[in-house]
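Our preliminary data section would be incomplete without showing what the modeling component actually yields. Below, a chain of 309 amino acids is followed by its predicted structure, encoded as tokens that our downstream tools consume directly.
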Amino acid sequence: MQQTYDLRDYTNYGYSFPYGIGRSVPLEISKEDRDDAGSARKLREHILQTITEVFKREGASLLSTPIFEIGENLAGEWSDGPRTKNDSRSKLYSIRHRLTPPFARWLALRPSRTQIKTYRVGQVYCCNEYDIRHLGALPEFYQCDFDIAGEECNPMFHDAEVLEVIVEMFKALKLDFVIRINHHKILRSVLAARGVPHHMVPDVALALDKWRQTSWEQVKRELAKMRLSEKVAEPLHDLECFHGDMSKALGALWRTCDRNVIAGVKEIETLLSYLEKSNIAEYMYFDMSLGRGLDDYSGIVFEVIVRHR
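Predicted structure:
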């Protein structure tokens, strides 16, 4: 919606306008952005407060980081987007796209810390035009991070702890949900065994990741754009047989006899043993198509799916 106002109406409130006040201008907001007020704002405050309370109950401490980071501290996509220049040190700053890179920088500056459990809730800003136009990303949104860093302990122990936090959070919000789980060791090995060239594995995994939100036909079109041969692409549809019940999917993967696949299966089984003790294994199911972040992560990946009522 667009309305026109006379700028002279605002001069009594201390506003200044570099282009003069002797004319009227349209005031509007971009279609991707939104103002929060009324019931929408109250709902957001309730959600964020509920999440924060769960984080605190799990013993996490609050960590706040600046909205801007020195561009040199960020790499690749993190350094893209709006920047401002700090005159005192002549440094270029980049607005944060996620809460993870600032946390990584904070950790790197404190190498003596042995272990930390922390949470962060804050606004982040997406400046990638493709993500906004084609993937439905909002230019500005809230991110809630719960992180455990430092000393290693039993494999999958902390992953199980994070999943416990997720389950508690969504139950507190009274939502009906399930959690998709995959392992990048498994996905990489299965794709390679089916003829996907090594350099194309991350892009193919990203295309498969959209399977649940779109359709197999849409995934095939994306694979064709990558110039993955139809002979290799079509059999990837068989990955559907690894979707669903955890025990059945893992049993089928054991029979592949692939060393890396079996290593991933063992880690998931260890994870499930912790989840069963916490009585939350029922929320999990295996999904081979879950493949986001293949360049960033090497182990377990999971995603919460809220069922429509």
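Residues 23 and 173 are 49 Å apart (CA to CA). The first strand starts at residue 3 and ends at 6. Preliminary results of this kind motivate Aim 1 of the renewal.
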